[in-house]
Design brief:
- The chain has helices spanning 29-41, 43-52, 55-65, 74-84, 89-98, 105-108, 129-132, 154-157, 159-173, 182-187; strands at residues 9-12, 116-121, 141-147.
- The protein has 189 residues and is mainly α.
- A three-stranded parallel sheet has the order 1-2-3, with helices on one face.
- Strand 2 (116-121), helix 7 and strand 3 (141-147) form a beta-alpha-beta unit.
- Helix 2 packs across helix 5.
- The longest helix is centred in the C-terminal third of the chain and has 15 residues, at 159-173.
- It starts with 8 loop residues before the first strand and ends with a helix.
- It comes from Citrus sinensis (Sweet orange).
- InterPro entries: AB_hydrolase_fold.
- This is AB hydrolase-1 domain-containing protein.
Length: 189
Amino acid sequence: MEPEICRGMILLNISLRMLHIKKQPWYGRPLIRSFQNLLRNTAAGKLFYKMVATSESVRNILCQCYNDTSQVTEELVEKILQPGLETGAADVFLEFICYSGGPLPEELLPQVKCPVLIAWGDKDPWEPIELGRAYGNFDSVEDFIVLPNVGHCPQDEAPHLVNPLVESFVTRHATPPASVSAASLYSSN
């Protein structure tokens, strides 16, 4: 909305929001809402979270989303699990998995006024690249890059592929547009 404060965006395997209420058939919507309310507002949600917030569950989930499962180390499992054991983490998790409203990426991308680079792991089991490719057709999307043999977390699974993309994109867009003076960049500080 304010291109003067954002020179570009890089999106990695964005959520297609397949559980979004708008993407569900009308007859399934009441069931989805009921299930979400059950998770959010009863002890069932906290019980479910306790089952998921374990080293074994985190390892299994990561092995689903990483194409190269050798990247799923004990250190990674612990780094992901530890914040999930903090007070309030269950509530955040339940809100995240129950969030089925709000804007969709396909509603937001047409509003973006800066260049966008999208990179997508072609082995993402949760956000299929076949569906993600459509995002490359938006006017603001400068490029859609396929990351071969990479799953859902390319920044971690394949930094050797992602980091050069980030560096190149930032270098290309680091200079402010001619219409934006240096003085105007600092006047808002």
